[in-house]
């Protein structure tokens, strides 16, 4: 299975990459984009408009994004980026920009972004979520300036941004030498790519014909490219042994890759693809890139049509201006996103507590499916372990108790669990199962909850009501 997935992933990467080939215009476009990719310091502006039709989403949505920022990728071990984001949905948008920063490979977002997410939640009629976030913003984030979203770590150790870009360029020009995509044209200013329902079939047929006739060199160059990229990459939890195992699996996926290409060639020869192309008639993807003075400009248009119905569209323009970008540090107090999530969970349990928890399982399952219904009707889903002893179902005390707002205490000396309600400690008798305290589902009745049990064929359903 892993080999099959690896080979399919390779085909996916190549198919996306092959929106540019290595014909005369393709090489010109690749050279153009290579020059752009090698710019490591620049400012940028982007405006994007997305339309989602009523036929697609049940009601029409118009979403507008504006990005304005700066980037410094001179040192990949200390990447820097800062940009402001503004957006609106159906003419209702945020009032102040959300600021995102990447400083020393750590990703931050300004605190006010939570206020803007609250605005979005209200626009999307998620009032309960808005109340929860407002509670945390007003009471727990008074002295906070930025939220730390994630730490990217030292991803690249011995490869510069330019080397990474050049490596991709070399891969395409070697693996697809002689292939002409025929979807790229040279314009008076730069280059244009256009993929429509009219030329998509020809493009796909030409691409897989090339892959069929050159599958050995394409596979070898792809494996070489992936090895080169990952050999210079450090990913948390992904050891050198993991890398070597992945490289071995890549090598061993050769026959799976060949088989997939052969099957794709037979499918294309059958003419069945024509039917699918007809279903997206009038759809198109167009991208134009050109240079004005020192500025690079990219314009993109996407229109999705399915069986004669326009499902949505996208129009985007990006302007990149090479210039020296000074890295700045984060100023002010920071809260980590994990702590913020804990604060949000606590606030939700207070404002919109769980009223009902339903657990479902089949014989032989290791875990039960958990559906929690809150006061305002919204539901959460989870998976939790259970065990059956002498025909009695045992469920995790801490998970269920804390979900209902109970304080659960554990006394290690006596191996006893308690529910703490003010000055009262209610002893709960249970068992330890995989380091979790489990109690019989009926014992929740002793704590004042209503318990219902239903057997529907092989499906068991236990419901706990507050």
Average predicted local confidence, pLDDT: 84
Q: Please work out how many helical segments DSSP would assign.
A: 13
Percent strand: 35-45%
**Cα-atom radius of gyration:** 28 Å
Largest sheet: 13 strands, mixed
Q: Find the count of extended strands (DSSP E, 2+ residues).
A: 25
What does this structure look like?
InterPro entries: Cu_amine_oxidase-like_N, Mao_N_sf. This is Copper amine oxidase-like N-terminal domain-containing protein. Residues 379-429 form the Copper amine oxidase-like N-terminal domain. It comes from Sedimentibacter acidaminivorans. The structure is a single chain. The chain is of the alpha+beta class. It folds into two domains: 1-352, no CATH class; 353-465, no CATH class. The chain has helices at residues 2-17, 24-37, 54-57, 112-123, 127-140, 161-175, 197-213, 215-231, 240-252, 254-270, 273-279, 337-351, 397-403, and strands at 41-52, 61-72, 80-89, 92-93, 98-103, 106-110, 146-151, 184-186, 190-196, 284-292, 295-306, 309-322, 334-336, 354-361, 367-374, 379-385, 387-389, 392-396, 407-411, 416-421, 424-428, 431-433, 436-440, 450-456, 459-465. Strand 22 (431-433) and strand 23 (436-440) form a beta hairpin. The model is unreliable at 1-21 (pLDDT under 50).
